[in-house]
Amino acid sequence: MFFSLKTAAIILAAGFSSRMGSDKALLELGEQTAVELIVSSYQAVGIEQIIVVTGQNHAALGQLQLQATLLQNPAPENGMFSSVKSGVAALDPAIDAFFVHPVDTPLVSLETLTGLIAALQQHPAADGVIPVFCGKRGHPPLLRMRLQQELLHADDAGGLRSLYPGWQLLELASDDKAVILDMNTPEQYALLKGFSAEQTINRQRC
Q1: Is 27 helix (H, G, I), strand (E, B) or coil?
Q2: Strand partners, 133
């Protein structure tokens, strides 16, 4: 499918992984780490700019030789929204829209990514589009570049979702359960590893 939208991806990988006990970006899923898997997914759908926002793990992620721009958040202790802002500030001005993708949701399908781009392309008035599985909003949202300045000047305390009510956002129904599954704990990681090995996570019914 041809996409006229110039699209970027911001992958949030600066967290401290306190509940997991080890860096989520470096957890293995099959033959790749979580961050490698996400980067490869965006490469596969032709994303023009891929930014990985790092924190104290910057050197470790640099050793992976990712086909992406590594951008270190100078203050990851300020929370995930500070990483969102770091990534948004670094976007190429020519970009039309950008994904915001936490590294702990690594199994989102290529079909979901292309579906989100197609939906936004078909609805020029929309500020963004969010995947929804069984009525629950998931990741990654795809947002218009016109939101950049509002994001950069928003209050850090509220986080990205606090801005959603002020935007015109589409909800794209999806059968990809991966959009709502993260891996904040060892138990959740084990679940995703099982799905990754069996390739059964996508196209599930409610």
Answers
A1: coil
A2: 136
Q: Is residue 185 part of a domain?
A: yes
Q: Per the domain annotation, does 203 fall within a domain?
A: no
CATH number of the CATH domain containing 132: 3.90.550.10
Please list the pLDDT of the chain residue by residue as tens digits (206 residues).
557 899 999 999 997 665 555 789 999 998 899 999 999 999 999 998 999 999 999 999 999 989 999 999 999 889 899 999 999 999 999 999 999 999 999 999 999 999 999 999 999 999 999 999 999 999 999 999 999 999 999 988 888 999 999 999 999 999 999 999 988 888 899 888 888 766 555 556 66
- The pTM is what? 0.93
What is the tally of structural domains in the chain?
A: 1
How far apart, in whole angstroms, are the C-alpha atoms of residue 161 and residue 100? 11
Residues 6+ apart with CB under 8 A from 189: 20, 24, 27, 183
Q: Look at residue 42 and tell me if it is in a domain.
A: yes
Please report whether residue 107 resides in a domain: yes
Confirm if 86 and 148 have CB atoms less than 8 A apart: no
